[in-house]
Design brief:
The protein is of the alpha/beta class. It folds into 2 domains: about 100 residues, Alpha-Beta Complex (Aspartate Aminotransferase, domain 1), CATH 3.90.1150; about 210 residues, Type I PLP-dependent aspartate aminotransferase-like (Major domain) (Aspartate Aminotransferase, domain 2), CATH 3.40.640.10. Helix content is about 40%, strand content about 15%. It binds pyridoxal-5'-phosphate.
Length: about 325
């Protein structure tokens, strides 16, 4: 099963891509040079020892707890398979939420439950399950607060469930900070997917941090393909914690904060309904229907939110002022036709 995604499709590359949540600001130069200089003539170390040691030190965990992955999408499939192999039969996913959690579980014949709120999840979580939390959540831009995490922790312990926190958009969080309690983080699986914040989604690279207890870790290691991460991916991850990269990300967030505000205003002036967000993307409901195809024909792509269970809505990422102007002009032109 292939889940629906924003970003590239089989057509020509969009000129203004609001449908991908990747940063429009490009990668930090040092990291990009390292990716471009990757040695392609030899396999990377199959054990990824230097990489795991480096990431483990940066994350404050033992290198054995770092599992390189060829992207968050691969990590989601692998963790779901590990959960299945360990005997778990149920998976909880946010609704609306990133489609790959459910797609991975359904492909393995696992039972998928969807939760609209943490309160609903905590009430219903009875059997041991793999529980996905996306922080901040794609597509809503919502984030769990202290009380949510506390209640979730209790429900996880009561039911003997395993928590997986997908932090793909943590580096693009524009407001507030993650409230995930450190003690719970130590007991959870965490997915780190840097390519969106780095504007390098074509480089397939991510890593998982296994819980301190090692739950599922052996299965997740055993089912990894050999050389799961390319040499380009290794170099990207080796430079993820560099000071230059982190300074670049601070600049990206500051710039996106300002652009998000103007984009919000542009859409409000067009009469669109918009949901609040803490991230660089959000859900909006255009005033008129049937916009997506004619916009795509003009090189402007928005993410249809129908597959998130939200027909009539779209998800948009923050884009440059030039892209915002192009979107506003195209919508005005379409109104006239
Ligand atoms: C919430 C979330 N997690 C994971 C991914 C997978 O990203 P990648 O496989 O490029 O690391 C995406 C991609 O859109 C996402 O939105």
């Amino acid at each position: 099963m292939i889940a629906e995604h924003g970003g590239s499709d089989s057509g020509p590359a969009p000129i203004h891509d609001f449908s991908s949540n990747a940063s429009p600001l490009g990668p930090p130069p040092g990291l990009l040079s390292a990716v471009l200089a990757a040695g392609r003539s030899r396999y990377p170390d199959p054990a990824y020892l230097a990489l795991r040691t480096h990431l483990g030190a940066a994350e404050g965990v033992d290198a054995a707890r770092v599992l390189p992955a060829s992207g968050g999408a691969e990590a989601i499939r692998r963790l779901s398979l590990a959960a299945h192999l360990s005997g778990l039969r149920e998976v909880w996913v946010p609704q609306p939420g990133f489609g790959d959690y459910a797609a991975a579980a359904l492909a393995l014949g696992l039972q998928v439950h969807r939760y609209a709120s943490v309160a609903e999840l905590c009430l219903a979580l009875a059997e041991p399950a793999l529980v996905w939390v996306c922080e901040p959540c794609n597509p809503t831009g919502d984030s769990l607060n202290d009380a949510d995490w506390l209640a979730l922790d209790a429900a996880l312990q009561r039911s003997g469930s395993i928590l997986a926190v997908d932090t793909a958009y943590e580096p693009l969080r524009l407001m507030g900070a993650s409230q995930l309690p450190p003690a719970l983080a130590e007991r959870a699986w965490r997915l780190v997917c840097p390519n969106k914040a780095l504007s390098l989604t074509g480089v397939r690279a991510a890593y998982m941090l296994a819980p301190a207890s090692g739950h599922l870790a052996e299965h997740a290691r055993n089912v990894a393909p050999s050389w799961v991460l390319s040499s380009e991916g290794v170099n990207l991850l080796m430079h993820w914690h560099d000071e230059e990269t982190q300074a670049h990300l601070r600049h990206v967030r500051a710039q996106l904060r300002a652009w998000r505000d103007t984009q919000y205003t542009v859409l409000a002036e067009l009469g669109w309904q918009q949901r609040p967000t803490c991230a660089n993307f959000w859900l909006a409901k255009p005033k008129q229907t049937g916009l997506l195809e004619p916009l795509r024909e003009r090189g402007i792509k928005l993410r249809d939110a129908t597959s998130f269970g939200l027909p009539g809505w779209v998800r948009l990422s923050t884009q440059t002022p030039a892209a915002q102007l192009a979107l506003r002009q195209a919508i005005k032109d379409l109104k006239k036709t």
